[in-house]
């Protein structure tokens, strides 16, 4: 999938969830070629996720014990995200935060609740290992745009909606380019660029670079909300002031 240019600088406004197929995928035979490569991608995902779960079982067992010790049960955190073609999926992670609340019953900021073993699990991305199960289920791919919250769906630009043409991933171009340190516009542009230029070779390159990022623990922010607004809030403010 290649070029798709021409984005508006005006802030996005809410709209129904749709995605436009890139011009390169509209050529005769191009769609069949892409779908064939996606089937190969799926086969690789299944074998790699199965192997990953087997190898990660001891790490998951130890991490789960620490989670229960620090935060209690349940040890897993489940959250709804938007997957390919706008389908809702349930994504699993190890808990890295407590449920501590203020006097009014509101959850404390992430920075206060993510303590003890939590930051370590996030820095090493161990908290995301349960998502290998999501890969086996077909909810996720190993590589792709990271799945985001459904409440963000109306606020994407047309170009940013390219993300819904590919399966969401455990890692992606965004993750190896800065992760939580990037502004929303930069993150979503990288996701769109990934869809346009996707290839199995590019997936392999991203996976290899992800390993280095995980080992160094770079780009991880414990409390992203302390550094930037959620996407919907940011664009609501931008639209209101435009």
Overview of the molecule:
Helix content is 42%, strand content 8%. The chain is mainly alpha-helical and 242 residues long. The strands form 2 sheets. A two-stranded antiparallel ribbon has the order 1-2. β1 (76-82) and β2 (88-94) form a beta hairpin.
What overall geometry do the principal axes of the alpha carbons give?
globular
Number of separate helices: 7
Binned strand content: 5-15%
Give average pLDDT, whole number: 86
Could you give the count of β-strands?
A: 4
Cα distance, first to last residue? Answer: 33 Å
Residue ranges: pLDDT <50 for 5 or more in a row?
2-9
Rounded Rg? 19 Å
Structural class: mainly alpha
Largest sheet: 2 strands, antiparallel
| Sheet with most strands: strand arrangement | 1-2
Q: Which helices and strands occur, and which strands form pairs?
A:
Layout: H1 30-71, E1 76-82, E2 88-94, H2 110-113, H3 118-123, H4 131-137, E3 141-143, E4 169-171, H5 184-197, H6 200-216, H7 231-241
Parallel strand pairs: 3-4
Antiparallel strand pairs: 1-2
Can you tag this structure with a few keywords?
242 residues, mainly alpha, two-stranded antiparallel ribbon, two-stranded parallel sheet, 8% strand, disordered N terminus
In summary, what is this structure?
The chain is mainly alpha-helical and 242 residues long. It has 7 helices and 4 strands, in the order αββαααββααα. α1 packs antiparallel against α4 (131-137).
